[in-house]
Amino acid sequence: MKIICIGRNYADHAKELNNAVPTSPLFFLKPDTSLLRNNAPFFIPNHSNDVHHELELVIKINRLGKHIEERFAHKYYSEMTMGLDFTARDVQQNCKKNGLPWEIAKAFDGSAPLGKFVSAEPLKNGDLKFELLKNGNLQQSGDTRDMIFSIHQIISYISKFMTLKIGDLIYTGTPAGVSKVEKGDILVGKLDRQELLSCKVL
Ligand code: MG
Fold first, then answer.
1. Cys-Cys with 86: which of 64, 93, 108, 111 at CB 3.0–4.6 Å?
2. Is the CA virtual torsion 10, 12, 13, 18 positive or negative?
3. Distance 174 CA to ligand 1 centre (A)
């Protein structure tokens, strides 16, 4: 399986990092060794002094697909959850400045905590709100209606380049409010007011 992450899919987050709002979806990959399941703790890696949380809606692909048309994209997922796209921001800024790939900033071990899956039917029926609580305080709040590219546009776009397979995960981008994590932080991800993810930073 592969993990596909969309970058800059909420205008307010692109703005907070001084990035241009993209005209087509931007995506990158993480390996399966990035995943943290069952609320496992996250260990800050030694190679960064500025790891940020990015709370994202995640969907799981449930059938094989290539060149999927937008109008059929809803048939390719049935479950969703909350995930974190941990980012070594200092390393990423350096990669960007030097035109280098992002893997050491984005794809390190444990960089993709994944919550408990629930049915994606509510998402197919309307927009959903989600939020990240950091040590009990609201830190990020998102609404899927603010996505620059919809879930269906994303699925269609990715599948032009890569075959989507059962079990593949798509992290759909983060809203504003990203911040540095410190040892001892507790991050909780809620979707539609339901707690689906909890991650302790060590
Ligand atoms: Mg992200």
1. 111
2. positive
3. 5
Residues of the domain holding 53:
3-200
Count of domains observed in the chain: 1
- Ligand 1 center to residue 179 CA distance, Å? 12
pLDDT at 14 over 90: no
Using CA atoms, how far apart are residues 107 and 4, in angstroms rounded to an integer? 11
Ligand 1 center to residue 72 CA distance, Å?
25
59 CB burial (10 A radius; 0-12, 13-18, 19+): buried
pTM of the model: 0.97
Encode pLDDT of 52-72 as tens digits: 999 999 999 999 999 999 999
Q: Has residue 22 got a pLDDT over 90?
A: no
Give 56 Cα–ligand 1 centroid separation in angstroms: 7
Q: How far is the CA of 85 from the centre of ligand 1 (A)?
A: 5
